UniProtKB/TrEMBL annotation:
Coiled coil: none
The name this protein goes by in its record: Superoxide dismutase
Molecular-function annotations in GO: copper ion binding
InterPro entries, per database record: 6-blade_b-propeller_TolB-like, SOD-like_Cu/Zn_dom_sf, SOD_Cu/Zn_/chaperone, SOD_Cu_Zn_dom
Gene Ontology annotations of biological process type: superoxide metabolic process
Ranges annotated as biased composition (Polar residues): 137-149
Location of the region described as Disordered in the Swiss-Prot/TrEMBL record: 131-157
Keywords of the record: Signal
């Protein structure tokens, strides 16, 4: 939904609400009771540093889940294949050691097959860390394997039927889940329950204990995760200090800035949040002097840190009921340009650190509406223009730095958040779309074409990205889980350009 164009000038009175964002059949028994006790499963080994990274795999997308029981013993395997251009997934699996008869089977939200709290009983249960049913349509409703995702959990799959020998085999196609996009199930878990599923009762169809679990692991792709500390970090921005080999990322929740050694993965608290104007950190930019520029989100600030992480300056935007200073970029003209997702204005900061409103967007083709408006911003290397993503419309805009003319480059980039521009190739982190997209731009940056989309190994609300040498690093912000329980550790994920 779009609001009417704002009629005010640069007094910034926007009061828009901030909406951050943000089956088949199977066959069969003998009595081999499946263990259902809570037994600690060996922790999933932390990913070593698999360098160099291999290029992303061609279509079709494939994933595999090695299925284990609560004792950690391997009891089967599932494969998932998504043809190029298709949303549906072909699922094949074989599991042994089940009790004969029907078993509920679902995709659960998280990646971990470890014990965890069952919110229904507040007790620790086997595979509780896998969380609840994957619910991309936010239906909050358990349904059938054919219920649309707006009305029922996307993770509700057909029941599995074990034969008298305790083995179950299944092969089916489902469009409830996908391996890419908003229904993307990579790095989530396939769960088999002790009992049949009535495909009706919340939250899990009375299907009982969780007895078999496996994480959907993308095949043919190597990635490297950098783990971040904190249970409520919700990282948003990232910048790379090539001189020191440090990735800097900030918490949208508390303003902490962390420095991650890109080689070793070691993380240090670079600058604690909580200082004036630094209760939150969103978009980040490093300048050639090694100073870190921080967009302050709802505080309406831009902070600047020196190389050591000390606060050099906190710049305030004009008072407003609902600011959201989201991202910033240093242009070749020496000015830092700043987006605000709630107020239709582009700010800029001069080389001597004076902040001013540079462009009032009322009267331009950019119309502010509900949700997150202008967000990721980059300057073109020729110094002619800014490219800016509008999250709630999926538009990419070009703003001419000399004439201030605004023109739409392209649309179709739903949930576009942060940007990384490399020549005429633009990478776009698209948060709830759960992909990184690659756009090829014309020489004048006036038009562009979406040429590729990558879910990588599964992305959790990717907010933005940066380059480390020939690789890219994306932030998995999980900002859509700020009112729930995020998966920890939070991660930055490094991958090869595609
Ligand atoms: Cu389940």
């Amino acid at each position: 939904m779009k609001a009417q164009p704002a009629t005010f000038g640069l007094t910034l009175l926007a009061t828009l609400t901030l909406g951050l964002a943000t089956a088949g059949g199977l066959e069969p028994p003998v009595t081999v009771p499946a263990p259902v006790q809570t037994v600690p499963v060996p922790p999933v080994p932390a990913q070593p540093a698999p360098m160099p990274l291999r290029p992303t795999a061609p279509q079709p997308l494939t994933a595999r889940a090695d299925l284990v029981n609560p004792g950690g013993e391997r009891v089967g395997q599932a494969t998932f294949v998504q043809a190029s251009g298709s949303h549906s997934v072909q699922v094949s699996l074989e599991v042994e050691g089940l009790t004969p008869g029907q078993h509920g089977m679902h995709i659960h939200e998280n990646s971990a097959c470890a014990p965890g709290i069952d919110p229904a009983t507040n007790t620790t249960v086997a595979f509780g860390a896998a969380g609840g049913h994957f619910d991309p349509g936010q239906s909050s409703n358990h349904g059938t394997p054919t219920t649309p995702n707006k009305e029922g959990h996307g993770g509700d799959l057909p029941m599995l039927t074990a034969g008298a020998d305790g083995t179950a085999r299944a092969s089916f196609t489902t469009d409830k889940i996908s391996l890419s996009g908003p229904d993307g199930s990579l790095a989530r878990t396939l769960m088999i329950h002790a009992q049949a599923d009535d495909h009706q009762s919340d939250p899990a169809g009375k299907s009982g204990a969780r007895i078999v679990c496996g994480t959907l692991v993308r095949q043919g792709l190597s990635l490297r995760d950098y783990e971040l500390p904190g249970a409520q970090t919700f990282p948003e921005g990232v910048a790379y200090d090539a001189q020191r080999g440090l990735l800097l990322t900030g918490s949208s929740q508390n303003g902490n800035i962390y420095a991650v050694n890109a080689q070793s993965g070691e993380v240090k608290l670079h600058s604690p949040g909580g200082a004036v104007g630094r209760q939150a950190a969103v978009g980040l930019e490093l300048d050639p002097q090694g100073r870190l520029w921080i967009a302050g989100g709802a505080q309406g600030t831009v902070s600047v840190l020196d190389k050591g992480g000390m606060v050099l300056k906190v710049l305030e935007t004009p008072k407003s009921p609902a600011p959201f200073v989201n991202d910033l970029t240093l242009a070749p003209d020496g000015f830092v340009y700043v987006t605000d997702s709630q107020r239709p204005v582009i700010f800029r900061v001069s080389p001597d650190m004076e902040l001013s409103a540079w462009l009032d967007l009322s009267g331009t083709p950019i119309q502010y509406g509900e949700g997150v408006n202008l967000n990721g911003i980059v300057a073109t290397p020729d110094g002619r223009a800014l490219l800016i993503a509008q999250t709630n419309t999926g538009d990419l805009w070009r703003v001419d730095l000399r004439t201030k003319a605004v023109a739409r480059v392209m649309t179709g980039l739903d949930h576009a958040d942060g940007l990384w521009l490399d020549g005429r190739t633009l990478y776009v982190a698209r948060n709830t779309a759960q992909v990184v997209s690659r756009v090829e731009l014309a020489a004048d940056y006036a038009s562009g074409t979406l040429v590729a989309e990558e879910p990588l190994g599964g992305l959790r609300f990717p907010t933005t990205l940066t380059a480390v040498g020939n690789d890219l690093v994306v932030v998995q912000g999980q900002l859509n889980r700020r009112s729930g329980t995020p998966e920890t550790p939070f991660k930055l994920t490094r991958f090869s350009r595609f």
